[in-house]
Structures are given as C-alpha cells and as structure tokens.
C-alpha cells in the first residue's frame, strides 16, 4: 500500500542562535554535560554503574568511536562527553513499545524529526508492518523468523538478497551475518564502511598491502610530528586528544589540515585530569593549514616536492622495500607549483615551511578521516600520504606510520571477520571447509550498487544489522524509492530511525541487546582502529525481556532458513562457540577464546607495522603516481561539504547545538565565508535554497539558514544526514565507490519557501 512516508525529516522552525566558536575543548563543561545527559536519560544508578565500566578491561567497549584504549592501564573513567551521550541514548529509560509505535501510522511517525524518533526510546518487542497495513504491530520471534525464511524461498536468484551491516556490530554477529549471506548464495554485504573508510582500505591495500593503519596508540608518545588531516577529533574522537597532547608533552608537533579550524585542535583540557581542568589547556595544533575543500592532493604533492628537493629520502628503505620510486619522483618534480597553490588555497611559502618540517621528521604519523575519504579522488589522496610515508621510511618503527581514524567502534573488526562484498579466496575456502556451506565467489553489491539494483527492481529481500541506511546514504529520495521496491525489509535495531519507516512492502523490526546490557551468551569482541581485538561485557539489565543478542538473532534466522544444514546453526550455543569457529577460519585469531580473555586483548598481525613486510603481489610497497584532480566548477557555484555537529552520532541526533562551532538551536544551516555572503547579499540567519549539480541532474533543497563562518571562500558546510538529499547517487569516489559527501557542487538562491 502507498504509505506516504517522508524520507527526509520535515522542515521545522528553528530559532538559530549564532555565537562564537569555542577556543578550548572539553574541560568542565564536557564532564558536566556527560553526567547531565546520562542522568536525564538513564537515571542515577544505571549511569554510575555503566560509566564505571566503560572501556575497562572487563567492561563494555564504548560505542562512541573506534579510538583505542591504552594497552596496559585504564584511568578512572575512560570516556568522553560523546561516549556518555552514546551510552545515555542506549541506556535510556524510555521505551518504544508496540503500543506506542502502533498508535500512529508510519506516515505520522515520519512527521517526527530524527531526534524525536530516537527519543521514543528502546525498542522492546519484534514488530511487523504488514503489506496491507500502515501501522506496526507486535509479532512473535518465531513468526518473524518464518517470514524471513519464506521470503528467502521466494527469491528467483540469490542476488535478490542484500544484508547490510553498520559498524557497531560485534565480531561474532558480523561473522555469522556474512556466513548467513553466503549461505543465501550471495556476497551482497554492503556496509557503512562503503560510505566511510572504504577509500582508505582500497588505497592502503594497493600501496602497502593492508587496508588498515600501521600504528599503535603508544606510537603517539614517540612521534616527532603528527599530521591530522580532514578530521574533527574534538567532537568525533575526543580520546584522541589525550594522545595528541602526549605527543606535544614529549616535544613533538601537531599540524592540522582542515578547511575549518576545529575547536579541539586549538586547545584541549583533559576532562579526567583535575589539574589540567583548572589551567588554560594544552594547545594541540602548532600550525593550522586552512586548505580548500578537496585541496589535499595538491598540498601533499607540495610537501613531497620539498622533501625531494631537500633530499630527505630514506634511500635504503626505498631500495629495500618499495617499487615505483623513480617514476613517482619524476611525477612530483613535474608537478606545477601554481596549480598546487591554487588548488590547496595555501601560499607556496607556507607549504614550503610545513614541507620542511615534514622532511625533517624522523617519526611521523599521518591521521585522517572523512575529510579525505569522501571525495572523487579519495583513493589518490590517501596514496599520496602513503607515498610520503614510504619515501621517508615511516613504517616498521615505533612512532611512525599511517593512521586512518575509524568511526564506528567495530567497523574495522566487521571487515576483518568477513563483512566484505569482495572477500578473498583464502577466506572463502577456509569458511567453506569449516562450515560445509558452498561459498559464492561472485562479487556482491556495495551500498551504492545495492541502491542502484533496488531502483531497477533487482532486490527483493533486504536485511540490516543495525544502522540507518535510508538517512546515512547519499541521494535520500532515490534511496527511499529503491527501498520501496523491496518485498521484505528487516531492521535489527535498538532504536527507531527513518529506516524503520521507509521500508519494503512488508517490514520487520527485530530488537536486540545493546553493548551496555547483560548478555546471557557471554561477552562479545571488537577490534579497535589500531588492530587490537578485545572483549566487551555489558552490565545493566536489558531494556526488555524480549530482546535477543545480535548473534542469537542471526543464529535463529540461519536455523529457520536452513534447518537441513549443511551447517548446524543450532550448534552455536554461545559466543564462545562462534569465536571457536572464527579462530578456525581467519588467520590471526588462533586461540581466540583464550586470548580475548586476556587483559586488553590481543593485536592482529600487521605486516607494515611489525616487519615491515608487504602483502602485495610484488612483495614490496608501491609508489603510485596520480595527476591532480580537475577542480574547476561553474562560475557562481560553491563546493559543499557535509559534516557532523557536536550533538549527533551519525544519523542519531542528540540535540540541536554544535557547541564548539558556536551554532545553537538549528541543524538546517549552511556555513559560509563572510565575503561570499556579502557578494551574494545575504546576512547571518537568512534562508537560502540549495541546488546540487551533477551532469544534467539538479537536486533542490529548500530553506537552509546561512551562518557566517571562517571557511575558505567558495566553500560551504552543512550537516549530514539532512544534506544527504543533495549528494547525487552516482557521485562517488574512483576505486572505492564512496559517496562524495565532502564535495558537492552547489548553487544558492534566496529561499522561495520562507
Ligand atoms: N560524537 C560523534 N563521534 C563520532 C561520530 C559522530 O557522528 N559523532 N561518527 C563516527 C564515525 S562513523 C566516523 S566515520 C567518524 C568521523 O569523524 P570525522 O571525519 O572527524 O567526521 P566529520 O564530521 O565528517 O568531519 C570531517 C572533517 O573533515 C574536514 N574536511 C571536510 N572536507 C575536507 C577536505 O577536503 N580536506 C580536509 N583536509 N578536511 C576536510 C571537515 O571540516 C571536518 O573537520 O567519527 C566517529 N565518531
Ligand atoms: N552526507 C554524509 N553522509 C554520511 C557521512 C557523512 O560524513 N556525510 N558519513 C558516513 C559514515 S562515515 C557512516 S559510518 C555512515 C553511518 O551509517 P549507519 O551506520 O548506517 O548509521 P548510524 O546512524 O550509525 O546508525 C544508527 C542506528 O543504529 C542502530 N543501533 C545503535 N546501536 C545498535 C546496536 O548495538 N545494535 C544494532 N543492531 N543496532 C544499533 C539504531 O537503530 C540507530 O538508529 O553514514 C555515512 N553517511
Ligand atoms: Mo563512519
């Protein structure tokens, strides 16, 4: 039935207040906010109990981000303001019961904002939206599993099934999820990393033979130089600030490269260090380079030019470990300074000055996140980082290396244990041997390919392990159209979001335990951004007695769909038995059950870090030559990037403020340079309509309030998920197919809707 559901949140009146960006991050306000949020949502006892165990050796892994904890010790509280928000939103006392959800049609529910949907509380029971209805109702677990099994039987082709994963899910659940997809007969396993660090994995895999970072947390103490590129750690990885300030304490320097001077990169007060909270805070970035959006490739080539001119190359490392250096050298030497300066927006002298620091460094770490991975040329930019690190021999020694800073707390682990739409032959044959399931070899869909297939009516069954694909993906309205073509959609979730409303003809909600909750099947495990696998144990009472753990839900879907085998899903009696299976399928997980019980867990092997050794076809690391990208845009247009505010976790909106940037009470905003504003004749708070341009296609979006901001001219910045509607589905990164959420060509016009 046509349900008239909104794919985008309704535009609500927002009383925007523009303050000034904060000079210092965290400190007292951070602590105060952490407790206030916990208390208001979860109550005193649950807050105290949970906050005492977050990120402890025997506690739960904070779902806030993938930043690691110290290997050998834990301070009193290992959390940050945003970890506290993540906890509070999960441990909330509010409940989204079938009565509450069923009291409204899905169309009525879609009139709520994303924040209001989340604040309905924890989902308590399995629910179904039947094909002939527009309201959810309760359903038995067994009936829900039978419906999935029937939908599978009705597929004409296994490729009509798609299983999405969001990176919060545990290793155990993810491994079973991948196995289930492959027993369906498909590698259609899109996941949030397709929109996130896919470009990093792709680039590093080619350059150094592993798609992961090559540093440990302790390296931050030893580095003499750290570049932080395209990342906002104060909001998104606050615990990283401790590592950066340790580098500074030990005499190292930090350089920030970002179109915005993000607050924490100025000064930081450690919220768990009473002495520092009284002082003025540590200055983090020694230099800030306000690069233009998409200007990083040029900037990095500029640094490389300086390094080559000064002869600061580690010749013996290059000869022993790499191929392609001479070609790269010629390529860089021929790069044009004028183009470098115009693309990056940074003067030649400044680039030379920082380039000299980069050249002199004996132990350099380069960190990056979404500011680099969500561009058309992302893979090329990240390979420029690898080139720089290789030329100076920054691998296989402490204090140096590549550090893609992951987002979701287990996005890296999910990949390691098989959430991959193009898995390796070694992995598939090992799983085949251990499970008896014939593994499909055909490459599956990534997130963009999934939507394209669904738009062409080639998907009939879609299941989602967490996440909120409808809001997280680019091109919101087309995604909604695609999902509407599907027969059955299934969300395994803790909280309501738009993906529960924009659904297939029939939809199921399967509610699961969160990280913080007691799990009768034992602890689960996760892998942090630095390749360390460790346990996570919840301690509070589950939100409802009906909840099942994620691995248990997958096990029961597997049993319902494949009662005859060959794989005995019933035999997986607890999470230990899943780990036992993983240890037999994936190298590096030997003695998994024993080692995950050790304090702090264990590191997975990493060739470039531990050797250096290179798992590439040539057995060496590779230099790659990339021409600078085409950066011309039409006269009068802007480049828009979409970022997170301080009050959200991806598509979960906690509140309406972006405290560090001084923007309050509003999310539908666009930050703009004041010179551009006066040229256009707009002032702060005025509303504009935004149109994005992609070939012949135009997408319009109404009523965005202008905020004057210190951002390079010609560049704009808005928040995701609201701005996702403007990102064209086909606009993706070369090689990784990641939506270009940080490079959207747009024009502005005075608002017609206000
Ligand atoms: N509190 C909180 N924590 C989170 C999340 C959250 O939503 N909230 N999300 C988690 C997830 S899944 C992820 S992936 C990470 C994301 O962590 P970040 O990557 O820090 O997230 P974004 O907000 O997208 O910030 C991108 C940064 O890159 C800059 N930038 C944009 N374009 C460019 C460019 O072309 N060049 C350069 N040099 N910089 C650019 C922006 O100004 C911004 O500072 O955080 C994780 N942690
Ligand atoms: N324009 C634009 N778009 C982007 C980005 C951007 O920077 N700009 N960033 C991209 C990035 S980096 C990412 S990672 C994606 C994020 O994409 P997703 O991972 O799909 O989205 P999230 O918002 O993290 O998912 C939140 C939902 O997960 C569910 N959930 C929370 N905890 C649990 C749990 O323990 N178990 C289960 N089963 N469910 C749970 C809740 O229902 C919650 O509403 O978005 C991408 N989209
Ligand atoms: Mo992410």
Q: What does this protein structure show overall?
A:
The protein has 754 residues and is α/β, with parallel strands linked by helices. A 6-stranded mixed sheet has the order 6-5-18-17-16-7. The chain has a 6-stranded mixed β-barrel with strand order 23-30-27-29-28-31. One ligand MGD binds next to helix 11, helix 19, strand 23 and strand 24.
Largest sheet: 6 strands, mixed
Low-confidence stretches: none
- Portion in beta strands: 15-25%
Query: What is the highest CATH level, the class of the domain at 198-404?
Result: Alpha Beta
The spatial strand order of the largest sheet comes to: 6-5-18-17-16-7
What's the overall average pLDDT, rounded?
93
Bound molecules: ligand MGD, molybdenum atom
CATH architecture of the domain at 198-404: 3-Layer(aba) Sandwich
- Which fold name is given in CATH as the topology of the domain at 198-404? Dimethylsulfoxide Reductase, domain 2
Quickly give the structural class: alpha/beta
User: Could you say which overall geometry the principal axes of the C-alpha atoms support?
Assistant: globular
SS element count, helices: 30
Alpha carbon gyration radius: 25 Å
**Roughly how much helix do the residues carry, as a percent range?**
25-40%
Euclidean distance between termini CA atoms: 33 Å
Got a strand count? 31
CATH superfamily of the domain at 198-404: Dimethylsulfoxide Reductase, domain 2
